[in-house]
Design a protein that fits this description.
This protein is of the alpha+beta class. Helix content is 51%, strand content 16%. Strand 8 (133-146) and strand 9 (150-155) form a beta hairpin.
C-alpha cells in the first residue's frame, strides 16, 4: 500500500482518542473501517469510510465509493488490511452497499432498533481533509419514512460532503444510521436498519439491479437454496464463464449436498475445456440426485450439447454412444416409476432426445425407426417432420423426403394454423432444390400467408430467386424490390435486382442498381460485369469496357469472355 495512505489511516485512528471526540469514540473505533476501492487495472478508484454492522465481517458503506470497483480493501483501527470478498447487496437510489470483509471481521457496531426523538443530538464520525477523523454534533429537525418503515433524519447542520457514508451515533454511542447526503444548510441520515433491504435476489428491483451491475466485485448468493438456484439460472444467460464459475463454486461450497450445483458447474467447465472436472461433477451429480432417471437424461443432454455445439477438441470419454448409454439408462429407470402419467411423459422426452442423438451420430436408420415408433404411439406432425429430415440425411429420393411433410401438413387441418409455417417452407425449399420451382413458389406464398406477411428481407430475396427460375419475372422483381426496401444497404440485393431487370430489358433500372451496389461495396464483382453488359446493350462501349475490365481485375472469368466477344 502507498505509504502516504497508511500514514493518513494511522492519523485517522489516532484522532479518535483526541479530546474533541465524544466519550464513546474509543469504544466504537474498532468497528470503523477505511475503504479503498480499485479499478480494473488496479488503480485507486475511491476512498471512504465503512463500518461493521454484523458478524463474520459484514459491513456497510456509501455505494458511490464502490461504483465501478473491481476490488476493495478495508483497513481497521489496528491498521490490519483485509480484502472485501463479497458484495451482499446494494441500492443505487439510497446509495448504500453491504459487503463482507474477508476473515472474521471486527466487532460490529451496536445498531439502534428504535427511531430517534426529535431534537436529539447525533454524532457523525468521519474523515477530515487531512486524514483525521472528528466528530460533528447535530440535532434532528425533521424525519420522513422510506418504504413505510425506515427513518430518514434531517439534521440542523451542513456536514462536509466528503463525510458522506460515515457512521452516525446517538448520545449513548449506538449506531443510528449512515450520513446519506447534504443539501443546502442541512444534512440527512439514512436509518441503519435500511441495510436489511440490501440483499442479493434472483430478480432484484431496479435500484438494486443498477447498483449491483456497476460493482464488479464478486457477489454473494441469495439466502435460500431455491432462490440461489433461480439466480444461477438467470445469471447463466448473461455472465462470463469465469464470473458464473465463481457463483456456482460458492453454491457448491455452501450447499455441498445439493446435486443441482454440480450439474450447473459442469456447463461452464465444458465451455472452459476442463472436461475431466466436468465429468467428475456430472458423476457427483448422479450420485446425489434423487431422480436417477432424469439425472441420466440431464447428463446425456450435456454430453450431446458438447458434441454438437463444441465438437473440437474431442473428449474420449464422451461420444454419441456414451450419450445413448445414459439415455438408455434413463429409459430403463423411468420404466419402474409408479406414476403412469409421469412415466409416459418422461419416456417420450427421453426417446426424442435419443433420436436426436442418433441423428447427430448420422445413424439415420435408427433415428427413423425411433421417430416412427413415437409417431405410432402418439401421432404428431413434429415426428413426421423429423422423419423427413432423417430421410434427407440418409439420401432418400425427393418423393420419400417430402412424403412425411405432406402427411404432417395434412394432419394440421384446413385452414392451416401458423404453426404449419415451418413445415411449408421446408417443403418449398425441397421443391426449389430439386427444380420444382412453381411448386416451391406456392409453398413460399403459403408460408408468407401463414405469418401474415411478417417475413424478412431474406425471405423476399429467396423467393425472388425461385421465381426467376420459374420464369415468373414480374413477381421476382416485386420481391427483390421489397428486399431492397427492407435492407437498402445490402449490396447483394441491388445486384440481384440488376440481374432481374436486365432479363426484362429494363436497362436504366439495371444500371442504377449496379451503381448503387458498387457505392455500397466497391469490390462486388457481379455488379461491374452486369453494369458493363447493360452499357453494351445501350451502346456505351467506353464505360462498358471500363466496367468489364474492373470485373476482370477482380477475377471474373465471365467478364473476360464478354470482353473477348465484344472488344
Amino acid at each position: 500500500m502507498n505509504k502516504n495512505i497508511i500514514f493518513l489511516i494511522s492519523l485517522f485512528f489516532m484522532a479518535l482518542t483526541g479530546s474533541a471526540q465524544p466519550k464513546f469514540a474509543n469504544k466504537v473505533k474498532k468497528g470503523i473501517l477505511s475503504i479503498n476501492t480499485y479499478d480494473k487495472q488496479g488503480n485507486l478508484l475511491h476512498q471512504g469510510t465503512g463500518f461493521y454492522v454484523g458478524a463474520n465481517g459484514e459491513a456497510v458503506a456509501d455505494y458511490k465509493i464502490f461504483k465501478g470497483a473491481y476490488k476493495a480493501n478495508a483497513i481497521d483501527a489496528s491498521g490490519k488490511q483485509e480484502e472485501v470478498e463479497r458484495i451482499l447487496g446494494a441500492d443505487d437510489t439510497y446509495s448504500m452497499v453491504r459487503f463482507r470483509v474477508k476473515g472474521k471481521g471486527g466487532a460490529p457496531l451496536t445498531s439502534s432498533t428504535a427511531n430517534q426523538p426529535m431534537k436529539s443530538a447525533l454524532f457523525v464520525l468521519s474523515y477530515t481533509s487531512d486524514g483525521k477523523v472528528e466528530s460533528e454534533q447535530a440535532a434532528i429537525t425533521d424525519t420522513a419514512l422510506i418504504q413505510g418503515k425506515y427513518t430518514y433524519y434531517g439534521l440542523d447542520k451542513k456536514v462536509d460532503t466528503k463525510r458522506i457514508g460515515a457512521p452516525v451515533f446517538n448520545e449513548s454511542g449506538t449506531l443510528v444510521g449512515i450520513l446519506h447526503s447534504v443539501m443546502g444548510n442541512k444534512s440527512y441520515v439514512l436509518d441503519i436498519r435500511f441495510k436489511e433491504t440490501l440483499t442479493i435476489a434472483a430478480i432484484p428491483n431496479q435500484s438494486a439491479s443498477v447498483a449491483l451491475t456497476n460493482i464488479f466485485i464478486p457477489k454473494a448468493l441469495p439466502d435460500t437454496q431455491e432462490e440461489a438456484l433461480v439466480y444461477l439460472y438467470l445469471k447463466a444467460r448473461n455472465t462470463s464463464n469465469e464470473e458464473y464459475m465463481d457463483m456456482v463454486n460458492l453454491f457448491v461450497t455452501t450447499y455441498p449436498q445439493n446435486a443441482e450445483g454440480y450439474l450447473r458447474r459442469a456447463t461452464p467447465l465444458i465451455d472452459l475445456l476442463r472436461f475431466d472436472e466436468a465429468d467428475k461433477d456430472m458423476q457427483k451429480y448422479l450420485s446425489l440426485v434423487e431422480d436417477k432417471a432424469n439425472g441420466n437424461f440431464n447428463v446425456a443432454s450435456l454430453i450431446f450439447d458438447k458434441l454438437r455445439l463444441q465438437p473440437e477438441p474431442a473428449y474420449d470419454k464422451w461420444t454419441y454412444d456414451t450419450a445413448i448409454q445414459y439415455l438408455d439408462q434413463a429409459i430403463a429407470l423411468n420404466a419402474a416409476k409408479p406414476d403412469s402419467e409421469e412415466r409416459t411423459a418422461n419416456d417420450t422426452k427421453y426417446r426424442i432426445q435419443k433420436a436426436q442423438v442418433l441423428m447427430g451420430k448420422e445413424d439415420y436408420d435408427g433415428a427413423i425407426a425411433l421417430y416412427e415408433a413415437l409417431h405410432q404411439a402418439h401421432p404428431a406432425p413434429s415426428y413426421l417432420f423429423a422423419i423427413s429430415m432423417a430421410r434427407g440425411g440418409r439420401g432418400d429420393s425427393i418423393g420419400q423426403i417430402i412424403e412425411p411433410l405432406d402427411s404432417a401438413i395434412a394432419m394440421m387441418g384446413d385452414p392451416l394454423p401458423s404453426e404449419a409455417a415451418n413445415y411449408v417452407i421446408r417443403r418449398g425449399q425441397l421443391y426449389a432444390n430439386n427444380g420444382r420451382y412453381r411448386e416451391a413458389v406456392q409453398d413460399y406464398n403459403q408460408y408468407a400467408y401463414l405469418l401474415n406477411n411478417r417475413v424478412s428481407a431474406v425471405f423476399y430475396y429467396e423467393r425472388s430467386q425461385i421465381e426467376v427460375n420459374a420464369r415468373m419475372f414480374q413477381q421476382a422483381l416485386d420481391d427483390i424490390n421489397k428486399a431492397v426496401e427492407m435492407a437498402p444497404r445490402n449490396a447483394l440485393y441491388h445486384v440481384e435486382k440488376a440481374a432481374i431487370t436486365i432479363r426484362i430489358n429494363q436497362l436504366d433500372d439495371c444500371i442504377q442498381s449496379c451503381q448503387t451496389a458498387i457505392s455500397i461495396n466497391p469490390n462486388i464483382i457481379d455488379a461491374y460485369r452486369i453494369l458493363g453488359y447493360a452499357q453494351l446493350q445501350k451502346g456505351d462501349k467506353t464505360n462498358a469496357k471500363a466496367n468489364l475490365q474492373k470485373a476482370i481485375d477482380l477475377g471474373d472469368e465471365t467478364a473476360q469472355k464478354l470482353m473477348d466477344t465484344y472488344f
